[in-house]
Amino acid sequence: MGISRRQTLQAAAVAAFGGIGCARPADRRRWWPDESRPHELTYMAWPTRRIWGSATDGVREDIARIARAVADFEPVTLLANSEEVKAARRACGSGVEVVPTPVDDLWMRDTGPTFVRGADRIAGVDLNFNGWGGKQEHARDGRVARAVLEDERIKRIKAPITAEGGALETDGRGTLLVTESSLVNDSRNPGMSRNAIERALKDLFGVTTVIWVKGVLGEDITDYHIDALARFSEPGVVVMSTPPEQAPRDVWTAAYDQARKVLDRAVDARGKRLEVVELPEPVDIGRRGDGFLACYVNYYVVNGAVIMPRFGDRKADRRAASIVRDLYPGREVVPLPVDHLGEGGGGIHCSTQQMPRVG
User: Fold this and answer.
1) Assigned superfamily of 5-356
2) Tens digits of per-residue pLDDT, 236-261?
3) Catalytic residue of the set 22, 92, 295, 350
4) Beta-carbon contacts of residue 279 (< 8 Å; ≥ 6 apart)
5) Does residue 295 have an active-site annotation?
6) pLDDT tens profile 58-78
């Protein structure tokens, strides 16, 4: 039997990372690997016309572009409604596996399972997606995590809370970063205190430290996910989406200021102060909708590369790519235009979900 494309990509990744992705902290029975560790594959989903209407064609172009870019570095499995499988395959090409699965929308980071690891196996946390607190129809997306796990025959862990994958960011070493606005609210977890939610997060993801920033409640569909604000590039290093100096004073700049103060004095699970790296947002991007996500930090780390957005502000795009390249030495940086996704309030990270490699 010949060597498959997936096996070839996996072998190359192991060689590139020297096997370091197999190590885990010895004191946790369950842990959530950080995104930089080797992946088995990436999950994505095909947007539907019922949700996106006249914007569907442009959004599908963005999703296909991301899928093809990721597939250059690791396998991609894209979920699509059965009647749209052929169109998705044509758009994404032979390098992307398209699987018929009922979906409402494309935001796989939120609807798919968040994969955790044990000593020698993985499991998937089903965060009970409810359409970001009932803001969007989700009859199909609410079952996506279960469908993926059943198809892969992976253990399903049903969370005792409701959340989305984009609301959570880990350093892979026991620290979790979250926005309070996306978790402590009655549309997801009615009557639950922050302490109760924190206990659930610690148990689900094997973390010992949860760093809370305030966020923004009610101004966007996600109630301000952390992956549009701050990410761990490595343990101890947080990269923050930084508003331009000329940005108007509003709820978003106030949220950034509050989060920056928290992170400047926060310590991680190892008891170490965090280093904060600024990733300035673009300025000259033309006319965009009020909800446009002009945020470089919503990038996605894959095996051997970082797939990140570019917005047409050449100076800012170059600066952002340079910063990301420094944060992830040895990885190729692949900037992509994703303006249609941006108009929908999301980006590359929001549309992807990694399955970590075991062994």
Assistant:
1) L-arginine/glycine Amidinotransferase; Chain A (3.75.10.10)
2) 999 999 998 888 889 999 999 999 99
3) 350
4) 239, 240, 241, 242, 296, 297, 320, 323, 324
5) no
6) 999 999 999 999 999 999 999
